[in-house]
């Protein structure tokens, strides 16, 4: 065995120590580089989390803006902007999905913070990227060891563990980091399970690209949301102006219609105070209408619209009170009128009953004075018997085609009313006024009973030939209406005719008749029917 001399042994020992030192230094530097890269990855993850929250906030903003725009979707500009916003939000969600980002991770306040600010600043500042062994030039092992020691003086394992303990940063031996993107490779880096430097750097770059994409998507959503807000603001302004102009027009019409309504009502109300309230409400509305608004300021426009609307509402309420009070007056007035009319009719009916009693007595007196029937031409008739024109006669309502002297016809109508009340039927008869020619024909047919033409009371319109039942009733009750069954026509008379009765009280009905009173008509509301 060959032993080296002392100087050579010292050189060899030094070389061995240098090699051991170099190996330890390189290993330490590599560990520190990985730790630095892991910290950068976790910082990138924090950025992704921030950008994700920013995108969620932008989408929330978009939803709010779209909701505000809903009332104005009939406007083309608003509708187009909302459609674009919808597409932009969909694109942003697609971007998040393409990068495996979960957009709804829950309450942002409850999410874990990947890095405490102090630790992050300290570690990133004190952990520059170390060179690998391949990057060390062939200047000598001792120089390489010295350079590596200079670059990472604090990133030994003990230092990292100390920092982790003070800041709460999770190391490879701690708990896992909450998932930022649904990528197992990236999550392995964030959980400090992946120690390969290349893999750590790739994950960091992926996180940075994701953060940039989320940031750009959020910015685009915000930009389009701002466009929607702008279009909505314009549409809302136009709508506010339209509403104001419409409100002004309606209010002007209300002032005119309420003026007419109050004039029509006058003082016909049960409570005069409602008229004062209505007048006050009209003055308030007038004052609102002469107010002005800055038409370029939507808030000013809306304020004036609200003021006019409130004044119009107050006027509507005041007029509703006027209507109610007026209708109450109408009801009360009609109740008073009904009572007055009822009294008038009672007085009239009493007078009529008295007059009817007097009339009946006059009829009876006339019948008593003319038991043998009527003789001669009635008063006022200037035509010959059987030749009285129709214009001088009156028709009978319940016997079409039959005619009599007007007093006789009126008395027969009274008799028929009494007969109807008793029997439910009209009086029935065959002959009333008979013309001269008709009397000639009747005489020819009944030479023993018919009168000589020109002498019959049928020729004056003062006689009626009744059917048996009606003749019997008229014989019994006719005197109450001025009709008599002549003595010569009675049984045992010179010419018995049980059917023949004559009217013997001309002029009595005219003297006894009284006109019906004019009743007070109901009053109607002066206001049109409520819509």
TrEMBL record:
The lineage of its organism: Bacteria, Bacillati, Actinomycetota, Actinomycetes, Micrococcales. Residues 190-220 form a coiled coil. The keyword RNA-binding does not apply. It comes from the Bacteria. It comes from Demequina capsici. Keywords: Coiled coil, Signal. Residues 1-31 form the signal peptide. The keyword Transcription does not apply. This is M15 family metallopeptidase.
